[in-house]
What does this fold into?
Amino acid sequence: MFRPTLLLVHGWAFDRHFWEPLRRELGNYPSVTADLGFYGEPEIPAVDGPVVAVGHSLGFPWLLRHLPEQCIGLVGINAFPRFTASKDFPEGVPRGQVRAMQRDMAKAPEQVLTDFQARCGIEHAMPGTPHWNTLKEGLSWLLQWDERERLQGLSVPLLVLAGRNDPIVSPAMTTAAFAACPRGGCHWREDGHLLPNSAPVWCATHIRAFMAAI
It folds into this structure.
């Protein structure tokens, strides 16, 4: 049976270990995890053969910017192509909110990280030592990146998995971001921002069906 490799890319303030619950559910598929370096050294694995790329939160626009040549499908979970609001994207997060996080990172970085993770629903601090410069760079990505044009030009099938109770990526933001994507298929769950952790079986079921249809 044809089984493409899953390339999994985490979001801001997480690392490769974020994917462990979902990888267990998708254990019959080969998978590799990228690490953007928010806690450890950055590592982007090379994959030979067909790839289905899966991005959580910030990991999705990162993938739009770095889509592997042999990518045959793209999955966004709690995802967005643009994070901050603009005149033509008022559903985004106010830019001042991200700028405030940037300012506070200079004074109390631990508090910024703890507050964000608490909003996501994380009860315990992430293991490992935060790399503050990389986390600051990630906030710049959230503030500046706009990958809507790349999303519109996407030539591979797309699956979007979203939470109706997501405190980071609102349903209005998700709907606006993906409404104009002609090949988009969005599935909703009464859940929050950590779907690969809070609903790994649900995510795995949709990803399997998506890969079977490619």
The longest strand covers residues 71-77. The chain has nine helices and six strands. The mean pLDDT is 94. The first helix runs from residue 20 to 25.
